[in-house]
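Researcher: Go.
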Amino acid sequence: AARARGLKYIAITDHTRFAEVIGGLNVDDVAGQIDTIGNLNKTLRGFHVLTGIEVNIQPDGSLDLPDEILAALDIVVAAVHSHFRLTKNEMTARLQRACENEHVDILAHPTGRKIGERPPYDADWDAVFEVAARTGTALEINANPIRLDLSAELVRRAVAAGCKLSIGSDAHAPEHFDF
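Model: Structure:
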């Protein structure tokens, strides 16, 4: 589907298994996927598949996969998927610690909002942007219509702080490439 749309590459960033209700990947699954994608890339011409993962940021800011496996991936996307009601200071520290992990490339759907479902969580965004700019962690502009996260105001503040931005479809199916 990606090639049919004229794309030259795609990143596979499945979720980790941070909750039993999410059928995500564990360490062994990720290692197997790295091997499978590596073998696939040997057969592709004019197209490349990047290995990646969307790791969960734990409440303390640590990630739910070890650094050894994260180091083997082309791209690491980190996101908050639970514990949305931490205090402003706790959430700020959580996001900052994730950005400080040397393997994290992108902070996904940074505010956690889902339009009509969940409000954004509270954080000191200028403090998060300062760390993201220093570490080179890109902040995702999530183009999925249910998220549209970061807001325009936060994008302007992130750019002013020197942050990199990533625009992503948050595709969970081929029809989501339209995002």
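Model: Strands lie at 9-12, 48-56, 75-79, 106-107, 138-142, 165-168.
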